[in-house]
Design brief:
seven-stranded mixed sheet, five-stranded mixed sheet, 18 strands, globular
Length: 412
């Protein structure tokens, strides 16, 4: 990274803004691994307007030149349906329609900054404070984007508040502004609890997440009127014959799945994931298969870095029927955590472009004139917005690509 560019120069804005966005996108993260490659803008693909693959849980849109607070429209592509035309019957007039739905997503600006220190601070250290400041801001921005994504997919913030959380609790007065689009409570039929309930107050001390619950989740998908669309990873030659879904679990949920699974079955669980990863035509593992994931009933299971956790007596929102949103309290002696079962097109991740930097992030730095140019301040900002994909079917909200599963998850 060049360090000879003067503080506050236009070249610094463009150079470091592009670098910050690239670094934030490349960092290992939930969001990165759930987003497919952007399509080439040519011919029939041109109408995608820069959207990433519709076969992944997160659909990303990057070619938006918008200002803070704008609203953008995302395209969600549907499978074709209809009867085949048999024999010599005419096909004309019976062609199936290639359809898509649109969903509006608000975008807004977010910002964060650090004090790079005064002249003597910089003289006393051999470290490049500009580089250190940018690295920390980039990491902070990546955590922010990941956590906003997690809360939108989960539909609720929960109560976990470790030091690495950037998104505050939903009781914070700035929570709604930070989320840009309001999180949506899991719709009816897209939420259930270990043990088979739809009411979080009924979760008891035996209702751990288990392989049996994962089997039940798969059966529910197959029985739905509007099932989740499977995920298709580049190079997965088994995608058509054995459609795959992704289950993101917390560290505690993973612990109890392992604890309540026999050794031989657990080895099969891990081997299934290795076998699927090894079948890719490229011979390279997709990042979702790195680490130590498991696979069960064609559902890939892997741990999340953070938890959507509900402490005893917390209020959890849910739908008691297809149109009625309500809430219930977790039992007084129960801690609950939320797993996320994902298919394709679960969330929209939209970016706007900053007019000064020409990219989706803007890095800014200045010598502080009020302090006689003795100290340096630097900041990073972005324009974007995320939202869970939801459509209205017969007057009822339906989440398109995610199912929330709550289970008992006490500290091990």
């Amino acid at each position: 990274m060049p360090t000879s560019i003067p503080y506050g120069s236009a070249l610094a804005v463009k150079t470091f803004s592009a670098a910050a966005f690239a670094q934030a996108q490349k960092r290992p993260s939930l969001r990165k691994n759930l987003t497919g490659p952007a399509p080439k803008q040519a011919d029939a693909e041109a109408n995608l307007r820069g959207q990433s693959s519709p076969d992944m849980p997160i659909v990303q849109i990057r070619d938006l030149v918008k200002n803070a607070g704008d609203q953008v429209s995302a395209d969600l592509f549907n499978i074709i349906t209809g009867k085949p035309v048999m024999g010599d019957k005419k096909l004309a007039g019976k062609l199936m329609e290639l359809t898509f739905s649109s969903m509006d997503v608000r975008i807004n600006q977010w910002r964060g900054g650090v004090d790079g220190g005064g002249r003597m601070t910089q003289k006393r250290t051999k470290h490049n404070l500009r580089g250190i400041g940018m690295a920390n801001l980039t990491g902070w921005a990546s955590r922010l984007e990941d956590q906003v994504s997690l809360v939108h997919l989960a539909g609720q913030r929960g109560s976990q508040l470790t030091k690495d959380w950037v998104v505050p609790l939903d009781t914070d007065p700035d929570f709604q502004d930070i989320m840009v689009n309001a999180p949506k409570t899991p719709s009816f039929g897209r939420y259930f609890t270990a043990g088979g309930g739809i009411d979080p107050s009924g979760i008891g001390t035996t209702d751990f997440l288990s392989l049996e619950e994962i089997d039940r989740a798969k059966a529910m998908i197959e029985d739905m009127d509007f099932p989740l669309q499977p995920i298709k990873l580049a190079g997965d030659v088994m995608a058509d014959d054995e459609p795959m879904y992704l289950l993101l679990v917390t560290a505690r949920q993973w612990h109890y799945i392992q604890k309540n699974t026999s050794g031989q079955v657990w080895r099969t669980f891990l081997q299934n994931a290795w076998n699927r990863a090894s079948s890719f035509e490229s011979g390279k593992k997709h990042p979702l298969f790195t680490g130590e994931p498991g696979m069960w009933n064609n559902i890939l299971i892997r741990k999340m870095g953070r938890s959507i956790r509900f402490n005893p007596s917390d209020s959890v929102k849910y739908y008691s029927n297809s149109t009625t949103e309500t809430a219930a309290a977790v039992a007084a002696n129960i801690t609950v955590e939320r797993a996320l079962l994902l298919g394709a097109q679960a969330m929209i991740d939209a970016y706007g472009a900053d007019t000064d930097s020409g990219t989706h992030y803007r890095y800014f730095e200045r010598l502080v004139a009020e302090d006689h140019n003795n100290s340096v301040e630097c900041s990073i900002s972005g324009i974007g917005g995320k939202a869970k994909v939801r459509f209205t079917v017969d007057g009822a909200p339906v989440d398109h690509g995610v199912i929330a599963i709550d289970s008992y998850a006490p500290a091990p």
